[in-house]
Amino acid sequence: MIEIEGLTKTFGEGPTAFTALDDVSVTIQSNEFFTLLGPSGCGKTTLLRTIAGFLDPTRGKLTLDGEDLLSKPPHHRPVNTVFQSYALFPHMTVSENIAFGLQMLKRPKAEISATVSEMLELVQMTAMADRKTAQISGGQQQRVALARALAPRPKVLLLDEPLSALDFKLRKEMQLELKRLQHETGITFVFVTHDQEEALTMSDRIAVMNAGTIRQIGGPRDIYDHPAERFVADFIGDTNFLKAQMLSTEGAGSKVRLSSGAEIMAKPAQGEPPATNGASVTLAVRPEHADLCDPNGALLAGSLKNVVYFGTDTHYHVGLESGEMFILRRQNQPGHTQNWATGDRVGLDFAPGTAQILKD
Ligand code: ATP
Protein backbone atom coordinates (compact mmCIF):
# COMPACT_ATOMS: atom_id res chain seq x y z
CA MET A 1 0.00 0.00 0.00
CA ILE A 2 1.39 3.39 -1.02
CA GLU A 3 0.47 6.22 1.31
CA ILE A 4 1.01 9.75 0.03
CA GLU A 5 0.33 12.54 2.46
CA GLY A 6 0.48 16.28 1.85
CA LEU A 7 2.97 15.91 -1.00
CA THR A 8 4.04 19.26 -2.44
CA LYS A 9 6.64 19.95 -5.11
CA THR A 10 7.72 23.47 -5.94
CA PHE A 11 10.22 24.04 -8.74
CA GLY A 12 12.44 27.12 -8.46
CA GLU A 13 12.28 29.92 -5.93
CA GLY A 14 10.98 33.46 -5.53
CA PRO A 15 8.70 35.02 -8.16
CA THR A 16 9.41 32.29 -10.73
CA ALA A 17 8.61 29.44 -8.30
CA PHE A 18 6.07 26.99 -9.67
CA THR A 19 4.10 24.52 -7.56
CA ALA A 20 3.58 21.40 -9.68
CA LEU A 21 2.10 19.34 -6.82
CA ASP A 22 0.02 21.08 -4.21
CA ASP A 23 -0.67 19.13 -1.00
CA VAL A 24 -1.54 15.84 -2.68
CA SER A 25 -2.80 13.01 -0.45
CA VAL A 26 -3.85 9.60 -1.71
CA THR A 27 -3.65 5.96 -0.67
CA ILE A 28 -3.02 3.41 -3.41
CA GLN A 29 -3.93 -0.16 -2.40
CA SER A 30 -1.61 -3.04 -3.14
CA ASN A 31 -2.54 -5.05 -6.23
CA GLU A 32 -4.49 -2.10 -7.60
CA PHE A 33 -4.50 -0.72 -11.14
CA PHE A 34 -4.44 2.94 -10.18
CA THR A 35 -4.49 5.71 -12.78
CA LEU A 36 -3.44 9.34 -12.56
CA LEU A 37 -5.54 11.14 -15.15
CA GLY A 38 -5.43 14.81 -16.06
CA PRO A 39 -4.58 17.36 -18.72
CA SER A 40 -1.04 18.13 -19.79
CA GLY A 41 0.91 19.93 -17.08
CA CYS A 42 -1.35 18.94 -14.15
CA GLY A 43 1.48 17.20 -12.28
CA LYS A 44 1.01 13.51 -13.15
CA THR A 45 4.62 12.89 -14.15
CA THR A 46 5.91 14.92 -11.21
CA LEU A 47 3.95 12.66 -8.83
CA LEU A 48 5.20 9.52 -10.59
CA ARG A 49 8.83 10.72 -10.54
CA THR A 50 8.52 11.51 -6.84
CA ILE A 51 7.33 7.96 -6.10
CA ALA A 52 10.20 6.59 -8.22
CA GLY A 53 12.72 8.78 -6.38
CA PHE A 54 13.90 10.82 -9.38
CA LEU A 55 12.51 13.96 -7.70
CA ASP A 56 12.54 15.03 -4.06
CA PRO A 57 9.32 16.64 -2.86
CA THR A 58 9.38 20.03 -1.16
CA ARG A 59 7.10 18.69 1.61
CA GLY A 60 5.05 15.64 2.43
CA LYS A 61 5.21 11.97 3.31
CA LEU A 62 5.51 8.90 1.12
CA THR A 63 5.45 5.36 2.47
CA LEU A 64 5.18 1.91 0.92
CA ASP A 65 3.79 -0.80 3.21
CA GLY A 66 4.52 1.50 6.12
CA GLU A 67 8.16 2.03 5.16
CA ASP A 68 9.43 5.53 4.40
CA LEU A 69 10.42 5.80 0.74
CA LEU A 70 11.73 9.36 0.69
CA SER A 71 14.90 8.44 2.58
CA LYS A 72 15.77 5.81 -0.05
CA PRO A 73 17.51 6.43 -3.39
CA PRO A 74 15.60 5.26 -6.51
CA HIS A 75 17.50 1.96 -6.87
CA HIS A 76 16.72 0.96 -3.29
CA ARG A 77 12.98 1.44 -3.73
CA PRO A 78 10.94 -1.68 -4.65
CA VAL A 79 9.55 0.35 -7.53
CA ASN A 80 10.24 0.26 -11.26
CA THR A 81 9.25 2.57 -14.12
CA VAL A 82 8.20 2.02 -17.73
CA PHE A 83 8.85 5.16 -19.71
CA GLN A 84 6.98 6.49 -22.72
CA SER A 85 10.16 6.18 -24.78
CA TYR A 86 10.80 2.56 -23.58
CA ALA A 87 14.53 3.41 -23.13
CA LEU A 88 15.70 -0.04 -24.35
CA PHE A 89 19.33 -0.74 -25.28
CA PRO A 90 19.27 -1.05 -29.10
CA HIS A 91 22.52 -3.03 -29.39
CA MET A 92 21.31 -5.71 -26.98
CA THR A 93 18.93 -8.55 -27.70
CA VAL A 94 15.46 -8.79 -26.24
CA SER A 95 16.70 -11.31 -23.64
CA GLU A 96 19.72 -9.20 -22.72
CA ASN A 97 17.49 -6.18 -22.20
CA ILE A 98 15.23 -8.13 -19.87
CA ALA A 99 18.22 -9.60 -18.00
CA PHE A 100 19.97 -6.24 -17.58
CA GLY A 101 18.29 -5.07 -14.37
CA LEU A 102 18.69 -8.49 -12.77
CA GLN A 103 22.42 -8.50 -13.56
CA MET A 104 22.75 -5.07 -11.97
CA LEU A 105 21.12 -6.52 -8.87
CA LYS A 106 23.71 -9.35 -8.99
CA ARG A 107 21.09 -12.09 -9.00
CA PRO A 108 22.43 -15.65 -9.56
CA LYS A 109 22.81 -16.68 -13.23
CA ALA A 110 20.32 -19.55 -13.05
CA GLU A 111 17.71 -17.28 -11.49
CA ILE A 112 18.26 -14.63 -14.18
CA SER A 113 17.86 -17.18 -16.94
CA ALA A 114 14.65 -18.59 -15.43
CA THR A 115 13.17 -15.13 -14.88
CA VAL A 116 14.00 -14.01 -18.43
CA SER A 117 12.22 -17.09 -19.84
CA GLU A 118 9.23 -16.47 -17.63
CA MET A 119 9.05 -12.79 -18.58
CA LEU A 120 9.38 -13.58 -22.30
CA GLU A 121 6.43 -15.89 -21.98
CA LEU A 122 4.43 -13.41 -19.93
CA VAL A 123 4.69 -10.75 -22.65
CA GLN A 124 4.52 -13.32 -25.48
CA MET A 125 7.96 -12.51 -26.90
CA THR A 126 9.70 -15.91 -26.56
CA ALA A 127 10.05 -16.24 -30.33
CA MET A 128 11.92 -12.91 -30.52
CA ALA A 129 14.32 -13.55 -27.61
CA ASP A 130 17.48 -13.27 -29.71
CA ARG A 131 16.51 -10.29 -31.88
CA LYS A 132 18.19 -6.93 -31.30
CA THR A 133 15.59 -4.49 -29.99
CA ALA A 134 16.36 -2.16 -32.91
CA GLN A 135 14.94 -4.90 -35.15
CA ILE A 136 11.50 -5.26 -33.58
CA SER A 137 8.31 -3.19 -33.94
CA GLY A 138 7.15 -0.46 -31.57
CA GLY A 139 4.51 -2.71 -30.03
CA GLN A 140 7.10 -5.43 -29.46
CA GLN A 141 9.52 -2.92 -27.93
CA GLN A 142 6.72 -1.93 -25.57
CA ARG A 143 6.35 -5.56 -24.46
CA VAL A 144 10.11 -5.86 -23.87
CA ALA A 145 10.13 -2.65 -21.84
CA LEU A 146 7.33 -4.08 -19.69
CA ALA A 147 9.13 -7.41 -19.27
CA ARG A 148 12.35 -5.64 -18.29
CA ALA A 149 10.54 -3.52 -15.68
CA LEU A 150 8.63 -6.51 -14.26
CA ALA A 151 11.65 -8.87 -14.13
CA PRO A 152 13.04 -7.73 -10.73
CA ARG A 153 9.49 -8.21 -9.34
CA PRO A 154 8.98 -4.71 -7.97
CA LYS A 155 6.13 -4.13 -5.53
CA VAL A 156 5.02 -1.21 -7.67
CA LEU A 157 5.25 -0.57 -11.40
CA LEU A 158 5.01 3.05 -12.52
CA LEU A 159 3.88 3.56 -16.11
CA ASP A 160 4.20 7.01 -17.69
CA GLU A 161 1.94 7.17 -20.76
CA PRO A 162 3.43 3.87 -21.96
CA LEU A 163 1.02 3.45 -24.88
CA SER A 164 1.16 6.90 -26.41
CA ALA A 165 3.63 5.97 -29.17
CA LEU A 166 1.46 3.14 -30.47
CA ASP A 167 -1.13 3.39 -33.23
CA PHE A 168 -4.82 3.20 -32.34
CA LYS A 169 -5.37 -0.52 -32.87
CA LEU A 170 -2.20 -1.65 -31.13
CA ARG A 171 -2.96 0.71 -28.30
CA LYS A 172 -6.34 -0.93 -27.74
CA GLU A 173 -4.65 -4.35 -27.76
CA MET A 174 -1.96 -3.27 -25.30
CA GLN A 175 -4.57 -1.79 -22.96
CA LEU A 176 -6.04 -5.27 -22.50
CA GLU A 177 -2.56 -6.74 -22.32
CA LEU A 178 -1.50 -4.38 -19.53
CA LYS A 179 -4.60 -5.22 -17.56
CA ARG A 180 -3.85 -8.91 -17.97
CA LEU A 181 -0.21 -8.41 -16.86
CA GLN A 182 -1.31 -6.50 -13.78
CA HIS A 183 -3.81 -9.20 -12.91
CA GLU A 184 -1.38 -12.08 -13.46
CA THR A 185 1.57 -10.55 -11.60
CA GLY A 186 -0.44 -9.01 -8.75
CA ILE A 187 1.92 -6.00 -8.83
CA THR A 188 0.47 -2.57 -8.05
CA PHE A 189 0.34 -0.50 -11.25
CA VAL A 190 0.37 3.29 -11.11
CA PHE A 191 -0.49 4.38 -14.62
CA VAL A 192 -0.31 7.92 -16.00
CA THR A 193 -2.46 9.05 -18.91
CA HIS A 194 -4.27 12.10 -20.22
CA ASP A 195 -6.63 9.82 -22.18
CA GLN A 196 -9.92 9.52 -20.31
CA GLU A 197 -11.11 6.51 -22.27
CA GLU A 198 -7.89 4.65 -21.49
CA ALA A 199 -8.32 5.49 -17.80
CA LEU A 200 -11.96 4.35 -17.74
CA THR A 201 -11.32 1.03 -19.47
CA MET A 202 -8.20 -0.03 -17.57
CA SER A 203 -8.33 1.23 -14.00
CA ASP A 204 -9.59 -0.13 -10.71
CA ARG A 205 -9.54 3.47 -9.46
CA ILE A 206 -8.71 6.82 -11.01
CA ALA A 207 -7.39 10.03 -9.48
CA VAL A 208 -8.43 12.97 -11.64
CA MET A 209 -5.83 15.74 -11.37
CA ASN A 210 -5.85 19.41 -12.28
CA ALA A 211 -3.27 22.11 -11.63
CA GLY A 212 -1.23 20.09 -9.12
CA THR A 213 -4.20 18.86 -7.10
CA ILE A 214 -6.37 15.74 -7.03
CA ARG A 215 -9.95 16.72 -7.81
CA GLN A 216 -11.64 13.33 -7.37
CA ILE A 217 -10.71 9.73 -6.64
CA GLY A 218 -13.02 6.84 -7.48
CA GLY A 219 -13.80 3.84 -9.63
CA PRO A 220 -14.42 4.50 -13.34
CA ARG A 221 -18.21 4.25 -13.02
CA ASP A 222 -18.28 6.39 -9.94
CA ILE A 223 -16.29 9.16 -11.61
CA TYR A 224 -18.27 8.99 -14.84
CA ASP A 225 -21.71 8.81 -13.24
CA HIS A 226 -21.07 11.08 -10.25
CA PRO A 227 -18.49 13.72 -11.16
CA ALA A 228 -17.83 15.82 -8.08
CA GLU A 229 -17.29 19.08 -9.91
CA ARG A 230 -17.47 20.75 -13.29
CA PHE A 231 -13.81 20.11 -14.16
CA VAL A 232 -14.23 16.34 -13.70
CA ALA A 233 -17.56 16.24 -15.58
CA ASP A 234 -15.98 18.15 -18.43
CA PHE A 235 -12.68 16.26 -18.58
CA ILE A 236 -14.21 12.77 -18.46
CA GLY A 237 -16.62 12.05 -21.26
CA ASP A 238 -18.69 14.63 -23.12
CA THR A 239 -20.97 16.62 -20.90
CA ASN A 240 -23.62 19.23 -21.51
CA PHE A 241 -23.89 21.98 -18.91
CA LEU A 242 -27.24 23.67 -18.35
CA LYS A 243 -28.22 26.49 -16.03
CA ALA A 244 -30.97 25.55 -13.56
CA GLN A 245 -32.51 26.60 -10.28
CA MET A 246 -32.63 24.47 -7.15
CA LEU A 247 -36.20 23.97 -5.91
CA SER A 248 -36.05 21.34 -3.17
CA THR A 249 -34.25 18.23 -1.98
CA GLU A 250 -36.39 15.16 -1.53
CA GLY A 251 -34.62 12.09 -0.20
CA ALA A 252 -31.84 11.04 -2.58
CA GLY A 253 -32.93 13.41 -5.37
CA SER A 254 -33.36 17.13 -5.88
CA LYS A 255 -35.98 18.98 -7.86
CA VAL A 256 -34.66 21.68 -10.19
CA ARG A 257 -36.21 24.09 -12.66
CA LEU A 258 -34.77 24.33 -16.17
CA SER A 259 -34.53 27.53 -18.23
CA SER A 260 -37.77 26.55 -19.97
CA GLY A 261 -39.63 26.44 -16.64
CA ALA A 262 -39.89 22.64 -16.73
CA GLU A 263 -39.12 20.87 -13.45
CA ILE A 264 -37.11 17.64 -13.21
CA MET A 265 -35.53 15.41 -10.59
CA ALA A 266 -31.72 15.39 -10.60
CA LYS A 267 -28.85 13.84 -8.62
CA PRO A 268 -27.44 16.15 -5.94
CA ALA A 269 -23.74 17.11 -5.96
CA GLN A 270 -21.55 14.34 -4.49
CA GLY A 271 -20.17 14.59 -1.00
CA GLU A 272 -21.51 18.09 -0.43
CA PRO A 273 -24.56 19.48 1.32
CA PRO A 274 -27.29 20.20 -1.23
CA ALA A 275 -27.50 23.70 -2.69
CA THR A 276 -30.01 25.94 -0.91
CA ASN A 277 -33.48 26.21 -2.38
CA GLY A 278 -33.61 28.98 -4.96
CA ALA A 279 -29.84 28.88 -5.65
CA SER A 280 -28.69 28.73 -9.23
CA VAL A 281 -26.91 25.49 -10.06
CA THR A 282 -25.36 23.85 -13.11
CA LEU A 283 -26.73 20.60 -14.42
CA ALA A 284 -24.35 18.15 -16.07
CA VAL A 285 -26.14 15.94 -18.61
CA ARG A 286 -24.36 13.18 -20.50
CA PRO A 287 -25.15 13.03 -24.25
CA GLU A 288 -26.42 9.46 -23.95
CA HIS A 289 -28.94 10.38 -21.24
CA ALA A 290 -30.87 12.75 -23.49
CA ASP A 291 -33.08 12.11 -26.47
CA LEU A 292 -34.79 14.13 -29.17
CA CYS A 293 -38.57 14.39 -29.10
CA ASP A 294 -41.48 16.47 -30.29
CA PRO A 295 -40.86 20.08 -29.13
CA ASN A 296 -44.42 20.45 -27.84
CA GLY A 297 -44.43 19.60 -24.16
CA ALA A 298 -40.70 18.71 -24.16
CA LEU A 299 -38.43 19.61 -21.22
CA LEU A 300 -36.41 21.93 -23.45
CA ALA A 301 -36.87 23.05 -27.05
CA GLY A 302 -34.58 24.41 -29.72
CA SER A 303 -33.46 23.90 -33.26
CA LEU A 304 -31.12 21.36 -34.76
CA LYS A 305 -27.86 23.08 -35.77
CA ASN A 306 -25.85 20.10 -36.90
CA VAL A 307 -26.21 16.36 -37.48
CA VAL A 308 -22.93 14.42 -37.46
CA TYR A 309 -22.84 10.76 -38.50
CA PHE A 310 -20.33 8.52 -36.65
CA GLY A 311 -21.19 5.04 -37.93
CA THR A 312 -22.32 3.47 -34.66
CA ASP A 313 -24.14 6.62 -33.59
CA THR A 314 -25.15 10.07 -34.75
CA HIS A 315 -24.53 13.30 -32.83
CA TYR A 316 -27.18 16.02 -32.81
CA HIS A 317 -26.21 19.59 -31.91
CA VAL A 318 -29.23 21.43 -30.56
CA GLY A 319 -29.30 25.22 -30.11
CA LEU A 320 -31.65 25.71 -27.15
CA GLU A 321 -34.02 28.66 -26.74
CA SER A 322 -31.95 29.71 -23.68
CA GLY A 323 -28.97 30.20 -26.01
CA GLU A 324 -27.20 27.11 -24.61
CA MET A 325 -25.88 24.40 -26.88
CA PHE A 326 -26.68 20.75 -26.23
CA ILE A 327 -25.13 17.73 -27.92
CA LEU A 328 -26.75 14.32 -27.74
CA ARG A 329 -26.09 10.93 -29.28
CA ARG A 330 -28.46 8.41 -30.76
CA GLN A 331 -27.36 4.92 -31.62
CA ASN A 332 -27.83 4.01 -35.25
CA GLN A 333 -30.02 0.94 -35.20
CA PRO A 334 -31.64 -0.85 -38.09
CA GLY A 335 -35.27 0.16 -38.43
CA HIS A 336 -34.72 3.62 -36.95
CA THR A 337 -37.37 5.55 -38.79
CA GLN A 338 -37.32 9.03 -37.27
CA ASN A 339 -34.97 11.23 -39.24
CA TRP A 340 -34.09 14.64 -37.93
CA ALA A 341 -32.47 17.18 -40.19
CA THR A 342 -30.54 20.39 -39.67
CA GLY A 343 -32.94 23.31 -39.13
CA ASP A 344 -35.72 21.18 -37.57
CA ARG A 345 -37.38 22.44 -34.41
CA VAL A 346 -36.84 19.72 -31.82
CA GLY A 347 -37.51 18.94 -28.18
CA LEU A 348 -35.13 17.42 -25.60
CA ASP A 349 -35.95 14.84 -22.98
CA PHE A 350 -33.68 13.41 -20.24
CA ALA A 351 -33.78 9.97 -18.68
CA PRO A 352 -35.27 10.61 -15.20
CA GLY A 353 -32.75 11.23 -12.41
CA THR A 354 -29.66 11.18 -14.66
CA ALA A 355 -28.83 14.90 -14.65
CA GLN A 356 -26.16 15.68 -12.05
CA ILE A 357 -26.30 18.92 -10.06
CA LEU A 358 -23.01 20.78 -9.76
CA LYS A 359 -22.77 23.78 -7.49
CA ASP A 360 -22.09 27.07 -9.27
P1 ATP B 1 2.17 15.87 -19.46
O1 ATP B 1 0.90 15.06 -19.65
O2 ATP B 1 2.28 16.99 -20.46
O3 ATP B 1 3.40 15.05 -19.32
P2 ATP B 1 2.05 16.20 -16.58
O4 ATP B 1 0.69 16.24 -15.97
O5 ATP B 1 2.79 14.92 -16.48
O6 ATP B 1 1.96 16.68 -18.07
P3 ATP B 1 4.26 17.36 -15.21
O7 ATP B 1 5.31 16.88 -16.15
O8 ATP B 1 4.17 16.70 -13.90
O9 ATP B 1 2.87 17.38 -15.92
O10 ATP B 1 4.51 18.92 -14.99
C1 ATP B 1 3.69 19.69 -14.12
C2 ATP B 1 4.09 21.13 -14.20
O11 ATP B 1 5.38 21.30 -13.59
C3 ATP B 1 4.22 21.65 -15.62
O12 ATP B 1 3.64 22.93 -15.70
C4 ATP B 1 5.69 21.70 -15.87
O13 ATP B 1 6.02 22.74 -16.76
C5 ATP B 1 6.27 21.96 -14.47
N1 ATP B 1 7.61 21.36 -14.33
C6 ATP B 1 7.91 20.06 -14.47
N2 ATP B 1 9.25 19.87 -14.25
C7 ATP B 1 9.78 21.09 -13.97
C8 ATP B 1 11.10 21.57 -13.67
N3 ATP B 1 12.14 20.73 -13.58
N4 ATP B 1 11.24 22.88 -13.47
C9 ATP B 1 10.19 23.73 -13.52
N5 ATP B 1 8.93 23.35 -13.80
C10 ATP B 1 8.71 22.05 -14.04
Write out key terms for the chains shown.
binds adenosine-5'-triphosphate, alpha+beta, 23% helix, globular, 360 residues, five-stranded antiparallel beta sheet
Describe the structure in brief.
The protein has about 350 residues and is an alpha+beta fold.
Give an account of the 3D structure.
This protein has 360 residues and is α+β, with helices and mostly antiparallel strands. The protein has eight helices and 20 strands. It has helices spanning 44-52, 94-104, 109-122, 138-150, 168-185, 196-202, 220-225, 230-235, and strands spanning 2-11, 18-28, 33-37, 59-64, 67-68, 79-82, 156-160, 188-193, 205-210, 213-218, 240-250, 253-258, 263-266, 280-285, 290-293, 300-309, 313-320, 325-331, 345-350, 356-359. The strands form four sheets. It has a six-stranded mixed sheet with strand order 6-7-8-3-9-10, sandwiched between helices. The chain has a five-stranded antiparallel sheet with strand order 13-12-11-14-20. A five-stranded antiparallel sheet has the order 15-19-16-17-18, with no helix packed on it. A hairpin with a 3-residue loop joins β16 and β17 (313-320). α2 (94-104) packs across α3 (109-122) and α2 packs parallel to α4 (138-150). It is globular and about 80 Å long. The two termini are 36 Å apart. The mean pLDDT is 91. Bound molecules: adenosine-5'-triphosphate (ATP). Residues 11-12, 18, 20, 38, 40-46, 194 line the site of adenosine-5'-triphosphate. Adenosine-5'-triphosphate (ATP) is lined by residues 11-12, 18, 20, 38, 40-46, 194.
